[in-house]
Design brief:
By secondary structure, the chain is an alpha/beta fold. It has one domain: P-loop containing nucleotide triphosphate hydrolases (Rossmann fold). Helix 2 crosses helix 4, helix 3 packs parallel to helix 5 and helix 7 packs across helix 8. 45% of the residues are buried.
Length: 217
Amino acid sequence: MTAPLMIAVDGPAASGKGTIATRLGEIYGLPVLDSGLLYRAVGVLLVRQGGRPDDAAAATAIAEGLAAEDLDDPAFRTRQAGEYASQVAVHSAVRLALRDLQQGFARRPDGAVIDGRDIGTVIAPDAPVKLYVTARPEVRAERRFRQLLAQGEAVTHVDILEDILRRDARDGGRADSPMVRAKDAVLLDTSEMTIDVATDAARRIVEAARAGRGSPL
């Protein structure tokens, strides 16, 4: 019996990991979970209810009632939602509340793809395929800047770069489940890659892992 194909895709904001995860799901016919949307949803819903991202108890209450099917709101993909996500993610109780949901998704019998910041280290440490997707901060800022402009947001490149650096520091410096590359994750730097090239590189990493060959890069 073939073991389920669980693919863990970690990395910082605007590295390309979300698009790569989505495309890997399409290639292998697997469901995809963007774990960052869970934290974005918690932050946005909390503020909508008049709460504050630094209120751990209120954020945890929302996280406990969240489901993977509740992530379609376009407001969860805004610049402000990303900032909220990084703020509520520092609360250990929020992370714990969302952990069961993510681990349940990872245990789907036919496999799954999950992208985030602690998938290969905490959510699915036994995943047979792990990628750590990254890019230089300036490149990631340019990507996010263009994305937000296309969504109609009034932003500047300088502000987005500051956002990126601030989130990197917060995500990598939190005490619970910090953003780090798993020891057995294959590093994929997309700084000089188009998304098509990056997707093909990711596919080759998956194929190499399935064949037991290690990194093809």
